[in-house]
Amino acid sequence: MAGVQHVQICLLAKYRSMGQSVAEIQHVQICLLAKYRGIDQSVAGIQHTTGGSTAAYTRWEKFKLAGLNQYAAKRNNSMLRNAVSRQSG
Fold first, then answer.
1. 32 exposure class (CB count in 10 Å sphere: 0-12, 13-18, 19+)
2. Residues in contact with 75: Cβ distance below 8 Å, sequence separation at least 6, in sequence order
3. Nearest to 36 by CA among 82, 85, 3, 65
4. For 16-70, what is each residue's pLDDT tens digit?
5. HSE on the CB side for 78, CA within 13 Å?
């Protein structure tokens, strides 16, 4: 991973000297890291579910309050969006 960090530092210096914003540099770094790690970038993101731990904890809390008591009865019905917690794919 040390090689990746070196590349990130070099990219940061190069793109900052070209006037690129931090957000633009981070986007380039994420794309390069994904390619380096073998992540298939042709797979589109899921538009109807917000990612990240904060959103996941919010979904889990809502599911515990409103869906957990019906989980056994509804879990196999894929047409019901809130039948499961949607914590894994």
1. middle
2. 83, 84
3. 3
4. 777 777 777 777 777 777 776 777 778 777 777 787 888 889 988 988 888 888 8
5. 1
Per domain, the residue ranges of the chain are 2-36, 53-83
DSSP secondary structure code for residue 4 in this structure = H
Q: What are phi and psi of 73, to 5 degrees?
A: -80, -30
Q: How confident is the model at residue 3 (pLDDT cuts 50, 70, 90)?
A: low
User: In what helix (H) or strand (E) does residue 50 lie, and over which residues does it extend?
Assistant: none
For the CA atoms of 69, 58, 56, 84, the dihedral, rounded to the nearest 10 degrees, stands at: 20
Eight-class DSSP state of 46: P
